[in-house]
């Protein structure tokens, strides 16, 4: 699989209360799971830096019949892709305002608690013209469809080639 860069974004450097304010000012909606994740101890604020994101379907990762989160993340890792910190999803949402209408784009991140009732991470979506940054839950045995799409961090070599 060839890793293609989807988008280069700047992440970090903005306290969570300011991130929430910027999301609100941009008209971006969120749900209760997103609020829970914003308050999670693992939602840390990094120093400002640029990252490159790749967006791939479960099928493109070689999981033709779909897969669990752990299978998807392992397949992505073998392709040089990495999980995203929780904070990155908010920055991605703010820098991807032209997302087309339709399916959601899950930001691949590690689950912060071993609790099936606790949110896993975030996804981005434009639905009926409204931009969303939503938290989601998926059990460890949930099978994602082959067409499900995830955003991952690219590896260091791909970052050096990041043009967008």
Can you walk me through this structure?
The protein has 5 helices and 7 strands; from the N terminus they run E-H-E-H-E-H-H-E-E-E-E-H. The chain has a 7-stranded mixed beta sheet. The model has no long low-confidence stretch (mean pLDDT about 90). The protein has about 160 residues and is α/β, with parallel strands linked by helices. It has helices spanning about 15-25, 30-40, 70-80, 85-95, 155-160; strands at about 5-10, 30, 50-55, 105, 120-125, 130-135, 150-155. It has one domain. The protein is globular. Helix content is about 25%, strand content about 25%.
Element layout with pairings:
Layout lengths: L6 E5 L4 H10 L3 E2 L1 H7 L10 E9 L11 H10 L7 H9 L10 E3 L13 E7 L2 E7 L12 E5 L2 H5 L4
Helix pairs in contact: 1-4
In short:
The chain has 164 residues and is of the alpha/beta class. The protein has one domain (7-160).
């Amino acid at each position: 699989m060839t890793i293609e860069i989807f988008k280069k974004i700047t992440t970090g450097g903005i306290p969570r209360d300011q991130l929430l304010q910027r999301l609100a000012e941009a008209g971006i909606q969120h749900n209760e799971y997103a609020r829970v994740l914003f308050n999670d101890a693992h939602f840390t604020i990094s120093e400002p830096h640029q990252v490159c994101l790749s967006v791939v379907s479960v099928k493109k990762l070689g999981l033709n019949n779909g897969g669990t989160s752990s299978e998807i993340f392992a397949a992505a890792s073998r392709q040089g892709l990495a999980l995203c910190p929780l904070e990155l999803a908010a920055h991605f949402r703010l820098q991807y305002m032209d997302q087309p209408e339709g399916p959601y784009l899950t930001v691949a991140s590690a689950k912060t608690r071993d609790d099936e009732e606790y949110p896993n991470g975030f996804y981005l979506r434009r639905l009926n013209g409204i931009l969303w940054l939503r938290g989601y839950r998926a059990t460890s045995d949930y099978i994602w469809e082959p067409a499900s799409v995830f955003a991952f961090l690219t590896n260091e070599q791909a970052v050096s080639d990041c043009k967008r």
